[in-house]
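queue> pop job 88
queue> type: inverse folding (structure -> sequence)
queue> payload:
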């Protein structure tokens, strides 16, 4: 499993270490079946191109709420939601290439328009 650090250009003191998910199996599993999530960890789901459909998520078998950020190809936050555990589906309002799933406490740390930095 590959881990990468996500940096917030507007808040350099808020890096998070996330699981890098760029294949079918890792994206399908995401954060399902875990008992909890550390405050500075999460998962980054990576698509080949921007899409609303391909970056939709479900919260089935996820046992905790999540901060979910959708990022476009330029790594700009285009949508965000506090996703509730066990609810079926969430779709971004705009096409995205990345889905960043973080601890629920991170929700106020990010705004639409923020630019995130990471190395793939």
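queue> result:
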């Amino acid at each position: 499993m590959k881990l990468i650090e996500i940096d917030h250009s507007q808040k350099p003191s808020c890096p998070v270490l996330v699981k890098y998910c760029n294949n079918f199996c890792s994206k399908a599993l995401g954060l399902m079946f875990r008992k909890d999530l550390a405050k500075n960890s999460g998962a980054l789901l990576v698509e080949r191109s921007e899409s609303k459909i391909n970056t939709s998520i479900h919260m089935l078998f996820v046992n905790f709420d999540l901060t979910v950020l959708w990022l476009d190809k330029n790594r700009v936050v285009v949508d965000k939601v506090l996703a509730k555990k066990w609810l079926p589906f969430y779709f971004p309002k705009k096409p995205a290439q990345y889905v960043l799933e973080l601890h629920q406490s991170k929700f106020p740390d990010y705004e639409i328009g923020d630019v995130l930095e990471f190395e793939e």
